[in-house]
């Protein structure tokens, strides 16, 4: 069910009182803002704080152009999402709290649902960019600390396990 673009105007003696249907937009908008802030804090922590007690200087981390680009994009998307979500949540809250209007032609508007959706999409994008930043930070740390890949090399795979499995296959 889509949110109506307007509330119901009720004519009073010299004012219009706007009645709005029950809608969790303000609560969900606030929850989205809090979650976005927590995701940004976690993203910054993943990039800046030492991992397993090993710290890397910031200039060594941001030597990678890809990490720098994703970090800036994550920051910009986070700010845009935060502004959009705050703007729509606050405007919806103001529409609902200031529901008595002296202008008798008031249409009782609500916040635009497209702005809520756009803010949510930007918040999702920023969280994904923070995840990519975290992965790129791990790569930059391992390059700086000259750590070997703990997964091993391809030549370390034991082929005898596959020979045993082939013996149990049915023959045609």
Shape: elongated
Average of pLDDT:
81
Q: Helix tally?
A: 5
Whole-number count of domains = 1
Give descriptors for this structure.
5 helices, 6% strand, mainly alpha, 59% helix, 172 residues
Describe this structure in words.
- By secondary structure, this protein is mainly α.
- The protein has one domain.
- The protein has five helices and three strands.
- The longest helix has 33 residues, at 65-97.
- The model has no long low-confidence stretch (mean pLDDT 81).
In short:
Helix content is 59%, strand content 6%. The protein has 172 residues and is mainly alpha-helical. It has one domain.
Blueprint of the fold:
Layout: E1 8-11, E2 16-19, H1 25-48, H2 58-61, H3 65-97, E3 100-101, H4 113-144, H5 160-167
Antiparallel strand pairs: 1-2, 2-3
Helix pairs in contact: 1-3, 1-4, 3-4
């Amino acid at each position: 069910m889509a949110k109506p673009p307007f509330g119901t105007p009720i004519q009073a003696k010299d004012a219009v009182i706007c009645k709005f249907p029950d809608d969790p937009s303000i609560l969900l908008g606030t929850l989205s803002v809090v979650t976005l802030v927590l995701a940004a804090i976690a993203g910054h922590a993943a990039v800046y704080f030492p991992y397993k007690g090993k710290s890397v200087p910031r200039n060594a981390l941001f030597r990678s152009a890809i990490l720098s680009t994703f970090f800036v994009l994550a920051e910009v998307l986070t700010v845009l999402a935060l502004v959009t979500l705050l703007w729509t949540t606050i405007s919806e809250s103001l529409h609902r709290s200031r529901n008595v209007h002296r202008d008798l032609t008031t249409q009782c508007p609500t916040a635009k649902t497209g702005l809520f959706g756009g803010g949510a999409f930007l918040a999702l994008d920023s969280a994904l960019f923070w995840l990519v930043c975290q992965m790129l930070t791990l790569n930059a740390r391992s390059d700086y600390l000259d750590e070997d890949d703990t997964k091993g090399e391809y030549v370390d795979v034991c082929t005898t396990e596959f020979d045993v499995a082939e013996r149990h296959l049915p023959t045609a």
